Queue: 3 jobs
Job 1
Amino acid sequence: MNSNQFTALVYGWIVVLGLVLISSVTLAFLLRFTSLNEPMVSYVTLAIGLISLFTGGIVAGVKGKGKGWLIGGITGIGFTFFTFLVQYLGFEQGFSLQQSLHHVGYILAALIGGIVGVNLVAEKK
């Protein structure tokens, strides 16, 4: 992996974490000041995660300009690893089966986003 691809990964991770942070704060305000219920929140957070990882994969793919599947996949794996570390080291809990399935979806969304991102900037020959 060269420095251009590593830079692309960092950009992808920054976008993912930024989008997740912004949407988490927004969701917290909605929970506090509206009548949004708990079952609806789980679906909304899943959708936010998928969209954030897809967007981060696109950014990483655009910046990387090649091997979008690899850059997108590593972007998703890095996010999953970061989430696992926070959960395991901070709360002493591993992933449940449902969380594992969600993170497989997140990795696939980032992988597809990386492929789309590379193809957005592909030069026509």
Job 2
Amino acid sequence: MNGLGKGIRKVEVSLRWDPSPAGKPPSDLDLVAGTYLASDPHGDAAYLVHFDSRSPDGTITLNRDSEDGKGFGWDEVMTLELDRLDARYARVVVGVVIQQRSGARTFADVANVGLRIREGYTVLAEDDFGGVLGATAATVAEFVRGETGTWDFRPGVRGSGTDPATFTRTMGAARN
């Protein structure tokens, strides 16, 4: 909780990485968010937000998308307006996938990867993916709606060795 018990309201998830060295294929990392219904919070995502998409109600948007890490500062930025999300949604999971077009790539193969999650000017989490260097994708945040309707943030980077399509299907599954 933050503020006067209003929970998490509007969050920005930012991702950065350095471009690949000359002569190497570009590294393409993507932010993805899945929303989960209160009736099935660990089942299939009700919808996904990623490059070339946004949430049906406009509450989750990808503001910046990079295919090569050549942006200034943060290469990918996603905004989640949790306070506007319909009450039927109880959970939002955010992940990062590495596109595998040019062969198998892990976080160890991408230079200077960084993640920042913040609400306003308050940094909720930062990470460099050092704990999941062998992974091809990772969940980076979970937001859960409490009984009073406020949203709580559950930090943690959890790696996955699956391809992007499998990852987006399973990123919201219950953890052991």
Job 3
Amino acid sequence: MTTMTPAPEVLADHTGAPRPWLNMPLTYDQARLGMAFHEAGHAVLSMAYGMHVITSEVIAWEPQPDVWAVTGSTSHRAYFTPPWHYAAQCAAGELAHVTYLMVYGLWTPERAAACAADHDRELAIDVLAQYGYRLGRDHVPADGKSWGMVRGIARRKISHLWREIRTVAHAMNENTVLTGDEIADLTGLVNTPLMAGAA
């Protein structure tokens, strides 16, 4: 953990607005591992769906003495990824986080609510809209899907890949940052090669 607050862009959503802060009533170690599960959910589903994962990390800092904060970041490149798979990997972070609470005996309604990652949902909505796909927050749009449907897709994939997610989460918690190739080595998944000219 560092005492330095991350740069504003690290704490911003895809529109540049600050992500909301949610209080997670857990110890530092429990919250850090939970965030590692969140990012591992994104990273493992991204890789399983054929995306190139660059890095996945937990970011923890102490904004003031005896006060700590955690967030995370997963960087990937999606090539020809089916739109609903892209949306499912966006949903996977929050779902893996809540599953961690359940599996580790930490689940309470308030802790589950604090896992909310609306910025991931909004990213999925905006990215899919660029390609003409309609993703509804709380309804099924014509010729589209609802966020609830996408969460169902992600939940099924998480259940099949829970061992890989757990392995990555614990390694990330220990090492802070994992590269996509390290995640591939840990899980046996294929990290699709970065396409020439992609940054």
